[in-house]
Amino acid sequence: MIKKIRQLNSALPGMLFVIFVAGILLEMIFIWFVKDKAGFTLGLFIGVILAVVMALHMAYTLDAAINLGEGGATKVMQKHNLLRYGVVVLVCGVVMVTKIANPLAVFLGIMTLKVAAYFEPFTH
Asked: Is the separation of the CB atoms in 87 and 50 below 8 Å?
C-alpha cells in the first residue's frame, strides 16, 4: 500500500503521517477544554479523514494533470479543486445542520492538511 502511495507522489506518505500525528496531538490538547468530548472527537476524526482524502485526491489530480498540456491541465486542476472544496463545504454544512459533531473540530482536522504541507520539507 505504501509503495502504491509513494508511486503516486513521493511526498504523500510523509504528509499522511503528519496529518495523523497532528490529529492525535490536537485531540490530546483540546479534549481537556471542551464540554462535548464525543462531539469534538468525532468532528476531529471527520476532519482528519477528510484531510487524508483531500491529500490523496490532490496527488491523483496532479499526476493526471502532468500528462496533459497546459490548457488541459489548468482545466482539470480547476475542476478537481472545485470538487474538493465542494465536498468540504458539504461535509461542514452537514455537520453544522445535524449537530452530530463539533464543526470547529472538523475545521481543525481539515487544517492538519496545511500542517502536513508546511512540514513536508522535513518529512520528505
From this structure: yes
d(CA 56, CA 37): 29
pTM given for the model: 0.88
Please name which of 31, 2, 30 lies closest in space to residue 15, comparing C-alpha atoms: 2
* 4-14 per-position pLDDT tens digit: 666 666 778 88
